[in-house]
From TrEMBL:
GO molecular function annotations of the record: 3-oxoacyl-[acyl-carrier-protein] synthase activity
Annotated SUPFAM superfamilies: Thiolase-like
CDD domains: init_cond_enzymes
Gene Ontology terms: biological process: fatty acid biosynthetic process; secondary metabolite biosynthetic process
Protein name (Swiss-Prot/TrEMBL): 3-oxoacyl-ACP synthase
Ranges where the Beta-ketoacyl-[acyl-carrier-protein] synthase III C-terminal domain occurs: 245-333
Domain Beta-ketoacyl-[acyl-carrier-protein] synthase III N-terminal stretches: 107-188
Provenance organism: Ureibacillus endophyticus
Listed InterPro entries: ACP_syn_III_C, ACP_syn_III_N, Thiolase-like
Residue stretches in coiled coil: none
Length: 344
């Protein structure tokens, strides 16, 4: 069973926050923002750039890119953030309505910044298990920069959070941009290290807690998390990429492009070095920041626009999400001859 990407869409707000602005808000030297955090500037949501609305904009672009009728879509999967227009709300169903996918059904899924990889795996599984599902739209939005307190040094590693939307259309039987296998790792020992401490059932939001600004991200044990996470995270990055390639039937030397999330430059470069890749085999998102689960789709689109990905190239999308979760999906870009189609 071939599943291929037939449509890709990305939405980015016009508004930007520069490294100088971040440095001033956080009271840290600008060279730290630029070199350690790897941020020249990042996208920031404008007045109308709501989370699901950005996903809808990206979805419409993906539909146009695929040149299909929205009525041909069988399932809509929302893979964006839970921080959206309303606290308790099914975003996928809203996207279904706004794009005119009247023959589809929809649902939401969540794995923080690893959700795009999860959604791709879910979409493939749905197609394999249900003969009536042939075309799936994945769409998500992200603007978690709203939840950052620049006066909180414990969350400094999240000062790169930005805003945007992304979408993919996958189709069963497609003979282009074939999606191969995914690999996912989750580690629950980090599940309560990064969270918003109030607003849930443990500590409902009150006017006092709101006034104190406790509705934003915090890190319960920053030093402990750093000690436990740093090397393990890099090891898991490497592991999911290797496993995705291996399960897909490719060797490491086949890899042509890595679509990675935005992280500190030293970690980005380390991953490239492990796979004997050069700077041109990826794009460091220093002009965009970290747009959560949208990063891989943004990197993919930028690489296609810049000609970094060519016909037949092996591309791996790799993610990491708070929780902690790591994931990778391997794609072969370009058209395939029917006789060469990979059979699952």
């Amino acid at each position: 069973m071939n599943v291929g990407i037939i449509g890709l869409g990305v939405y980015l707000p016009d508004k930007r926050m520069t490294s100088e602005e971040i440095a001033r808000l956080a009271n840290i030297p600008v060279h730290i923002v630029q070199t350690k955090m790897g941020i020249e500037e990042k996208t920031i949501a404008g007045e109308d750039d709501h989370t699901v609305q950005m996903a809808i904009c990206a979805a419409k672009e993906a539909i146009q890119n695929a040149n299909i009728n929205p009525k041909a879509i069988d399932v809509v999967i929302y893979f964006g953030e839970e921080h959206k227009e309303y606290p308790l709300w099914s975003a996928g169903i809203k996207i279904q309505e706004e794009i005119g996918a009247t023959n589809a059904w929809a649902f939401d899924t969540q794995l923080r910044c690893g959700t795009a990889i999860l959604a791709i795996k879910l979409a493939k599984s749905l197609m394999a298990s249900d003969e009536d599902i042939n075309t799936v739209l994945l769409a998500g939005g992200y603007r978690n920069h709203d939840l950052i307190d620049f006066n909180n040094p414990r969350t400094r590693f999240m000062f790169n959070l930005g805003a945007g939307g992304g979408a993919l259309i996958l189709q069963k039987g497609a003979m282009e941009n074939i999606v191969y296998e995914s690999d996912l790792i989750t580690d629950g020992s980090f599940s309560e290290d990064v969270l918003i401490p109030v607003g849930g059932t443990k500590q409902p939001l009150t006017p006092l807690l709101l006034e104190q600004g406790l509705y934003r991200f915090d890190v319960t044990d920053p030093e402990g998390m750093k000690t436990r996470l740093e090397q393990r995270s890099l090891d898991n990055f490497i592991k999911v990429i290797r496993n995705s390639l291996m399960k897909s039937g490719f060797k490491e030397e086949d890899l042509s492009y890595l679509a990675m999330l935005h992280m500190k430059k030293s970690a980005h470069d380390y991953v490239l070095k492990v796979f004997d890749l050069k700077e041109e085999n990826s794009i460091y998102l220093s002009k965009y920041g970290h747009i959560g689960q949208i990063d891989q789709l943004l990197s993919l689109k930028l690489a296609l626009d810049e000609g970094k990905i060519k016909e037949g190239d092996i591309v791996t999308l790799v993610s990491a999400g708070i929780g902690y979760a790591w994931g990778a999906t391997t794609i072969q870009w370009g058209k395939r001859k029917e006789t060469e189609a990979w059979v699952n």
